[in-house]
Every structure is written in C-alpha cells, then in structure tokens.
C-alpha cells in the first residue's frame, strides 16, 4: 500500500481506537391524551469497543444520559418585602432555559468529570447554560439561577439521578427517566455520553417528540386558533349546563 | 381519576375538581352568590396557573347564575332596563379590565394586585355583612323591632344628570350610576374571575336604593352576561380558558347550586348571611396571610 492511503485511513483508524455508542429510547413519540399523567422513558444501548473486546487494565467506562425539554424564554421574578407585604421586585430574563432537564448517570456526575467538562456539556443542574439576557452582577445571577433550579426541581421538572444508569458487563446500559405531566409539548432530546478517565469519549443524541393527540390536541388548537368560536362554545356549555340542572331540579 | 387539562397543560384529579365545584355550588346556592371568589383561590391552591384559574372560573359563575336568572324572571324579579345598563357598564368594564390585566401582567404585579383587591373587598364586605347580620340576630332575640330603613339612594347618585325612570326598581335616577357600578364590577370580573354579586347586591340596596324584590334577580342577570363576556375576553386575549376544567367545575357547581338552594329554605336568612360573612372573612384572612408571610417560593417564573 502506498503511504498516501495510510494517511487517508489514519483518522478512521484513530476513531477505531475509541469506543462507539449505540443508543436508543423506548419511545420516539409521546402522545398526550386525556389520561396522561406523565411518561417513563427507557434509555438503553450498547457500548461498542474497538476490536469487539472489553479493554483490560483500563478504567471502567461510565454512562451519563441527559434528557432536555425544548428551551423557553422565561422571565424570573424575585419577591421582596416592601411595606409589610411580599411583592415582585428584581427580575431577570433568560433566553434559553430548558423546560425540562433530567440527568441520569452511573456514578455521581461530580465524580466523573471536572467542572470545565461539565460546563461544556451542561452536565448537572449547577452547570446549565441559561444565557441570561442582562448583564446583572455575578452574585445576582447566581442567586437567580439557584432559585430557578430550586423552583423547577420542586415541580419535578429538573432533577439529577446519580447511579440511575445500570451498566451490564460493561457493554449494555439502561436508565429510566420519568417525565411529569407538566412538561410542555415539543421536541425533547436524549443525549448519551460515554465517559472514561474524566473525558467524554463518545456522545450520541436521539430526539423524542412530545405532542398532544386526539381531543387534547383539538382543544388546545381550537383555543389558540379559533378563539372566538372556542369562547362561544365555553359560554354555551356553561349556560346549557346551568339551565339543564335547573330544569331537572324543578322536576325532582 | 386523572384527567389532562389541554390548556392548563397539567393533569388533575377530575373528582377533586368536581367536588370543589360542588362545594362552591352548594355555598352559592345557599347564599345566593356566584362563588367565584372561592373557586379562583382554591384552584390556585390546587396548582392551576392563576390566569387559567381566573379565566375558567368565570364560566363556572355563568353556569351557576343561569337557573337563578330564570327563576327570578318567572317571579318578575328582574329589572331588565336596570340590568341592561349594568350589563353595558360591565362589558365596558371587562374590556378595561382586560387592558389592566395585561398591564399588570407585564409589570409583574398582577398576583399582588389581585391579592390586595381580594383582601380589601372580602374584608370590608365580610365585615359589613357580619355586623348587619349579628345586629339582626340580636334584635330578633331581644324582640325589639328593627329600625325602619329609609330607602333612599346616595346623595352622589341623586346629583348625576340625565335622570330616567326605572319602573321595576321604583327609581328615577341617572343611568350613569348603574353604568359606573357595572363598569367597576366588570373590572373585578376580569381580574378576579368573580361574578361580583356580593359587591353588586349591597351597592344596589345602599347606593342606588333599589326595591329589594328585584335586587338579587337583577344582580344575577348582570352576572350572567358579564361573566359570559369575561369568558369571551379571556378566550380571545389571554387564551387561558380551559374548557375541560370549566366543564368539570360546572358539573359540580350546577348540581351543588340546586342542592344549596333547597338547603337555604331550612335556615333563617340572617344566619345564612352570618355564615357567608364568616366564610368571606376567612378567605380574606387567608389571602392576607399569603401577602404578609414570607412566601414558600421567593421566585416565580413566567414565559416571555
């Protein structure tokens, strides 16, 4: 073989030296119907090592799975006591805060990678890149970010699940992530990271679409697009129900 | 039984909402009020976003007032001319209220303003009602005859121009007075999701001096139309009317209202008024505590 061929193959050969991820999710589409109370996603996959063999004598590999909801532009307000009552005072706008964020890992995330890597890949609730729209001083930004994470965590919309990823024989992994009923609709992403020795060796992304279906979709669209008809139907429904109850009551 | 609300974007227990509507309906049937002042705060406590709660409870008040209006029409207890003026004022008020709602929403003070208005209103109306009903009960116990109340309208009302005759109410006053009253109630309907009956009824008696036989029917007439308009305004501006939530509330409340109306005939009216006053004061006190106590959540998030 000519040396030129070898040079061309070099990147491929080097890529071969790294393991490859083959991820999948249990559901690519989640449909919200009348009985929707949340969903449980199963994220699973395999780690393909070069040569098809488990490397020996090396550090074990770890898996981190991040599920993110569509980003939202949000306005956050902080209450303050003014003249005896609590009113909204300071505020901060974020251009892209994830509406949902769940991170599952095979070990606590702060033991897997350093702060810099966590910030780059947004691994962990304290490493989210929320892009605040103002240049408020750092302590204030910190306070708001902590407040936002705390608020979302209590609503079940942000959470960390260390040790929720199971790795079987160093090859197969699986993790369960539950999605509460309060999530907005849209495109969710499930990112899987393969980590060894504090470095991200491979990453792969799968999309999950969450949308309303059937009657729920019809109602939400009607409320948004034909709001006059929707309002008239709501009024007619209340007048009819009130009248019917009165009619029945007079005959009982 | 969990049910997903398509506009509020969350799932609720349908039975809890129906029972909530039923409980409010029972009270509204007993005391002759719409019950919106209870529905909105209770829904917020349950976790429904405040805007959706206010928008959807207005339609519940519509449903609760329909059968009352029909009943009063049969008894000729509705002054349609007066009602028409009140409704016109109410419609203007609800448009103004919608504008105010947006303005307050943008400044981030909507929740505080709603709470303060509730506290002032519930506190003053509840206090007046409690004082009046305790007085009546006391007089009934001691057997002293009640002082004959002069049925006269407020001097300010008499000073307004363009007087006209309202036959059923037995009044010769300017239509501007009920128009302003309706306007004010319309604002409250949009902001708080209430019918405003418990403001309107005392105002009609003490400010306008209307004949008491038509007061409740006319107030219900105004409530019916203005809450219907409020639902339309919310549906087209805030888009926060959740028809599934409204239907659940209605199912409970229309049944509860009928049961409550039968219940009410078993009690003396002054005791009913005292009961309502105590309830109104309790709700007001709860909201006041929410304002002055350090809230559980210092931060709040809105989409922008």
Automatic annotation (TrEMBL), chain A:
Matches recorded under InterPro entries: CHP02186-rel_TM (IPR019088)
Transmembrane annotation, as ranges: 228-249
Pfam families: Alph_Pro_TM
UniProt keyword terms in alphabetical order: Membrane, Transmembrane, Transmembrane helix
Highest taxon of source: Bacteria
Protein name from the UniProt record: Uncharacterized protein (TIGR02186 family)
Organism: Sphingomonas faeni
Higher taxonomy: Bacteria, Pseudomonadati, Pseudomonadota, Alphaproteobacteria, Sphingomonadales
UniProtKB/TrEMBL annotation, chain B:
TM regions (residue ranges): 12-38, 44-71, 83-101, 113-134, 179-207, 214-237, 243-264, 271-293
Record's GO cellular component terms: plasma membrane
Membrane topology summary: Multi-pass membrane protein
Highest taxon, organism lineage: Bacteria
Subcellular location: Cell membrane; Membrane
Record carries keyword Cytoplasm: no
InterPro entries named in the record: TM_pro_TauE-like, TSUP/Inactive_protease-like
Keywords assigned by UniProt, alphabetized: Cell membrane, Membrane, Transmembrane, Transmembrane helix
UniProt similarity note: Belongs to the 4-toluene sulfonate uptake permease (TSUP) (TC 2.A.102) family.
Protein name as catalogued: Probable membrane transporter protein
Species, as recorded: Sphingomonas faeni
